Amino acid sequence: MSQQVLPFYLVCDESSSMSGEPVEAINRSLPWLHREIGGDPRVSGRARFCLVSFSHEAHVLLPLADLSAVTSIPALTPGGGTSYRVVLDLLRETIDKDVAALRHDGHQVLRPAVFFLTDGRPNDAGEWPAAHRRVTDPSWDPRPDILAFGLGLADAPTIRRVATDRGFIADGTLGPGRALREFARSLIRSMAGSAASTADGGMSPELPGEVPGFTAIPADVT
Q1: Beta-ladder partners of 215
Q2: For 11-48, how does the pLDDT look when each residue is reduced to its tens digit (9 = 90+)?
Q3: How far apart are CA 192 and CA 136, in angstroms?
Q4: 3-state DSSP assignment of residue 157
Q5: CB-based contact 129:161 (threshold 8 Å)
Q6: CATH code of residue 168
Q7: Whole-prediction pTM value?
Q8: Which domain, by its residues, includes 34?
Q9: Angle 128-135/84-104 helices, nearest 10 degrees?
Q10: Number of structural domains, the chain?
């Protein structure tokens, strides 16, 4: 059945610095997200979810899907360095294909939302900004809204440059596990709120303005 569809992309750093509590917290949260979203037909019918991981390489771990039709979400496996360029290039390619496929099926596709989570600084500082410009190019119709979340060694200037809507930096009031659970909770609320909004005629995703354990910072739009 043709309807309005909101694509959500969870982009997770799985470089070696995420080993231990950070990646374990994300992997514990993914089944919870699956149950909350996949078990609510009002949400899963309108929101689609994709999981992308990156280190020195980037991979689509779960292609864009209705979570009610998914049996499980793959876990992250940490290792390697941190390349923003490879994941931004993959994100542009993936969104382009996903939006084309949804439109081919007769759906009205609303602007995708990307939740970008990283705990470190990129190893490719001179390369990733060009890839970021391709993803945020105003002439590219499916360009997403990007919320960037930083913890660990991630720095505010980089998070601000990645974000297009707003960024969030872990403020130290919560441990990594609890902070990442709040991150996952914000994604679930956003998907649920966006689905409800589109059902009422809304045309854009409902994105969080604040997340416990994180300080909100404005995106760098220069």
Answers
A1: 169
A2: 999 999 999 999 999 999 999 999 999 988 888 788 99
A3: 25
A4: helix
A5: yes
A6: 3.40.50.410
A7: 0.95
A8: 4-218
A9: 20
A10: 1
